[in-house]
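Hi Prof. W.,

I finally got the Reverse transcriptase zinc-binding domain-containing protein prediction working! I wasn't sure whether to trim anything, so I left the full sequence exactly as given:
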Amino acid sequence: QHLFFTCPVARIIWRSIGVVLGTDRCPSNYWQYFVWCHKFLPGKQTFYTVGLAATCWAIWLARNRATFEKKQIKTPFEIVFSLCSFLLYWTGLQQGEDAKELRTGAE
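And this is what came out:
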């Protein structure tokens, strides 16, 4: 869980998402993430898992590039932009209004 929640880069990512949601709090583990979503995105359970997947995947890929390709993370916001692009791409997996809402949130 350290990789996705408590390392300094991950904290910036979660804080950035928190700002969009209107909070300065951010989760420190998976359990807190779902509590956080329930509090700041009530009634949007459809998006909890896809949001977590996009965030963790973006962090994972950035870490792999830094570790294996020696490409430094210039700014944590490149990870935020990456996770937004995943969300936009994955709107095709949602149905009806959910796809529209996810697209709006990612944009």
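The mean pLDDT is 94. Does that look reasonable to you?

Thanks,
D.
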